[in-house]
Design brief:
- The protein is built from 6 helices and 5 strands, in the order ββαβββααααα.
- It has 172 residues and is an alpha+beta fold.
- The chain folds into 2 domains: 84 residues, Roll (Ubiquitin-like (UB roll)); 72 residues, [2Fe-2S]-binding domain (DNA polymerase, domain 1).
- A 5-stranded mixed sheet has the order 2-1-5-3-4.
- Helix 3 packs across helix 6.
Length: 172
């Protein structure tokens, strides 16, 4: 057996997993080695979460699993059987952005935008965790999300704004 097999050759190895993604229930057949990120992007066509480093070092793939921040490139989809997954697409919609999404727009918390979905999901999860009380806390808590453009001051301003509004989640 080689390290990579053709897709048709692995169909008999697929595992059934069920999860709720952005409020919609899914029963899926996935190969056991499929990452949550690949399932979201390729299987469900939810391309907001980005594949940056594919090693859990950049945070571009951050999603919320049962409300907790997760690097989706580091976990297998089958590990989340029965879980509730929220991606950037599940936080808001065109014309009806979540408070955190709107704050990122209002405070110019993005430049190229590649890291933005992960930054926003991480910020929403961080606020829900309740650990961030100061600007230094925000910077520390979001340190796993890398912005190559250096929009950090604007990202922090966006998160601080949502915190000042008394929002605990920054989502809907």
């Amino acid at each position: 057996m080689t390290g990579q097999q053709a897709l048709g050759e692995t169909a008999d190895l697929a595992v059934t997993t069920e999860m709720t993604v952005n409020g919609r229930s899914h029963t899926l057949q996935v190969e056991p080695w499929t990452s949550l990120l690949d399932l979201l992007r390729e299987g469900l066509q939810l391309t907001g979460s980005k594949k940056g480093c594919d090693h859990g070092q950049c945070g571009a793939c951050t999603v919320l699993v049962n409300g907790v921040r997760v690097n989706s490139c580091l976990c297998l989809a089958v590990m989340h059987d029965g879980d509730e997954v929220t991606t950037i697409e599940g936080l808001g919609s065109e014309g009806n952005l979540s408070p955190m999404q709107q704050s990122f727009v209002d405070h110019d918390g993005y430049q190229c935008g590649y890291c933005t979905p992960g930054q926003i999901c991480s910020a929403v999860g961080m606020l829900k965790e309740g650990h961030a009380k100061t600007e230094a806390d925000i910077r520390e808590q979001l340190s796993g999300n890398v912005c190559r453009c250096g929009a950090y001051p604007n990202i922090v301003a966006a998160v601080k704004h949502v915190m000042s509004m008394g929002q605990t989640e920054g989502g809907r």
